[in-house]
Design brief:
452 residues, Rossmann fold, Dehydroquinate synthase-like, alpha domain, metal ion binding, DHQ_synth_AroB, amino-acid biosynthesis
Length: 452
């Protein structure tokens, strides 16, 4: 093995996860079995599986879908995130938001604080709070934050703690995040810090939040010098993904979330990538069956990876494909100018281009990545005017920098394979950045760059 490169992961759920971060596409030896929820789990021993199953059953004993779905809706699905005594279910379906009984199963005490924003509140807050209050002796409070990535800060987060203290919420209170990824990240961090740990529940209302940020327990806020640099790993008690909330989602927000689904296909699941090439327009048109399949598959993939590596010491880092480039774009433009998924889309193309320049992937993968993201209405290059120096500056404070050395998630091998490594020719990185800020042609693709 070349010094500095992280080799193939050989962890299983009944062994410690080694400090490696390579992950290859299906079928993977660690994740070849499925539990009854359809989530793939490792081939652990029968005894370990029985113990783990008993733990999960005790934790999510009430994690059952509604017995009688609303007429005309698709049957709901459940994906379990297997983290021992902190395991939790992800409910995926239609018309779930007003089924307050599901949320109430996972409320520990009698106090609930619903955290939402100025965009989501007029749409769902009143009916959601009413449903919770009708479930029993719940004291339900709410706080409405300003909407947008630019408000993901400690200063705005203070409003959540202010409301919790003013309402005399105790340690058994449950914080509920009703909104997109920003609200989910901030609410989870607020709960993690409040009286050293209150419970929280994720109710994502965007594609991005459903397939990525609401799953896995990453919480936090931005700092002017870096995205998500202040936060904590803190798992929710459940995730409730109601696809009907996507009907009110602006087209740009919906398309942005598709970039994270593309990411799962690139790093892990070539079958999902192939499916997206055939069905991406259905997602843009909000086809219910297509959307449920994409969300269910994405959640199952992320649940598997989080179960293996909760704190990103190994394979979980692969979920950051394109994010180091993308976070630099967000920070340079000012948080909120580009949506997170848009920045990640351009970042994934840069990562694919760099991988091709290194000789690690065939040009066809670059071309297919560009074509799919363009069809998903995502940018494939950084914004005009962004400089190479801005990339260098913001990438130098990325969370994947270790001992002063930048590590990147790059594609390597056939579609569905990637690696996290700091062992690459730095000149190749410079060449990639220079080509993209100059808006030259993309390696492996005959298409001229697009910007948004």
């Amino acid at each position: 093995m070349v010094a500095g490169e992280l080799g193939p992961c050989s962890a299983t759920l009944d062994r410690p996860v080694p400090t490696v971060a390579s992950f290859s596409g299906r079928p993977h030896p660690l994740l070849v079995h499925r539990n009854k929820s359809g989530c793939r789990v490792s081939a652990a021993s029968q005894q370990t599986r029985r113990v783990r199953a008993a733990t999960v059953q005790a934790q999510v004993a009430s994690a059952e879908a509604p017995a009688i779905p609303k007429p005309g809706t698709l049957p709901p699905k459940i994906v379990n995130v297997d983290l021992g005594d902190r395991s939790y279910p992800i409910y995926i379906g239609e018309a779930l938001l007003n089924d307050a009984e599901i949320v109430s199963r996972h409320v520990q005490g009698s106090q609930i604080l619903v955290v939402t924003n100025t965009t989501v509140a007029p749409l769902y807050l009143e009916s959601f709070v009413k449903g919770l209050r009708e479930q029993g002796a719940f004291k339900v409070e709410s706080v409405i934050l300003p909407d947008g990535e630019e408000h993901k800060s400690l200063q705005v987060l203070q409003q959540v703690w202010d409301k919790a203290l003013e309402s005399r919420l105790d340690r058994k209170a449950t914080f509920v995040a009703l909104g997109g990824g920003v609200i989910g990240d901030m609410t989870g961090f607020a709960a993690a810090a409040y009286q050293r740990g209150a419970s929280f529940i994720q109710v994502p209302t965007t594609v991005m939040a459903m397939v990525d940020s609401s799953v896995g327990g990453k919480t936090g806020v931005n700092h002017p010098l870096g995205k998500n640099m202040i936060g904590a790993f803190y798992q929710p008690r459940c995730v409730l993904a109601d696809m009907e909330t996507l009907k009110s989602l602006p087209d740009r927000e919906l398309a942005s979330g598709i970039s994270e689904i593309v990411k799962y296909g690139l790093i892990f699941d070539p079958e999902l990538f192939n499916w997206l090439e055939e069905n991406v327009e259905k997602l843009l048109n909000r086809d219910s069956k297509a959307m449920m399949h994409a969300i269910d598959r994405s959640c199952a993939i992320k649940a598997d990876i989080v179960a293996l590596d909760e704190r990103e010491g190994g394979v979980r880092a692969t979920l950051n494909l394109g994010h180091t480039f993308g976070h630099a774009i967000e920070a340079a433009q000012g948080y909120g100018v580009w949506l997170h998924g848009e920045a990640v889309a351009a970042g994934m193309v840069m990562a694919a281009d760099m991988s091709f320049r290194l000789g690690w992937i065939e040009p066809e993968i670059c071309k297919r990545t560009v074509e799919l993201l363009k069809r998903a209405k995502q940018p494939i290059t950084p914004p005009k005017g962004m400089t190479a120096e801005q990339f260098r500056s913001f990438m130098s404070v990325d969370k994947k920098v270790q001992d002063g050395k930048l590590r990147l998630v790059l594609l390597r091998g056939p579609l569905g394979n990637c690696t996290v490594t700091g062992d690459f020719d730095p000149q190749i990185l410079e060449d990639t950045i220079s080509a993209f800020v100059a808006h030259e042609g993309i390696s492996g693709s005959s298409d001229l760059p697009n910007t948004q």
